[in-house]
Amino acid sequence: MASEAIKTLVRNKKAHHDYFINETIEAGIELFGTEVKSVRGGRVNLTDAYASVDKGEVFVHGMNISPYEQGNIFNKDPLRPKKLLLHKSEIRRLIGLVAQDGFSLIPLSLYFKGSRVKLALGVAKGKKLYDKREDIARRDSKRSMDRAFKEHNNRF
After folding, report:
1. What 3-state class would DSSP assign to 120?
2. Are 123 and 23 in contact (CB under 8 A)?
3. Which pTM value belongs to this model?
4. Confidence class of residue 1 from pLDDT cuts 50, 70 and 90?
């Protein structure tokens, strides 16, 4: 079996800044034809998106897929809830994880796996302001150390 090519379309950069990601799950997503064409064009926004479990099904809310420009009556509402395709056992496990205090489902990235659109879903817990400051300080110190090592290595 040949491995399927993965082409990342959109990443939710804000998710890693605002949340601790405990676990990631790959889910299929139910889209209409004109939505897939817009996704292929990269006209997707995941910034304020979140997922919820409702009556044994998982839906992603707030994911904006812009209407396809050449589409007509077949264009759908850009902000409509989109159903995620998961196995029943995965949904049960997600219900158990989300039931814990402070955990939520956050879309991390949207990508093509072969010809199918997939969504990486993260089980996340919100960061406090001081956690964000620690991450920024850690990133800045790593950047300055890397810069110092590079300057040191360039001298020799």
Report:
1. strand
2. yes
3. 0.71
4. very low
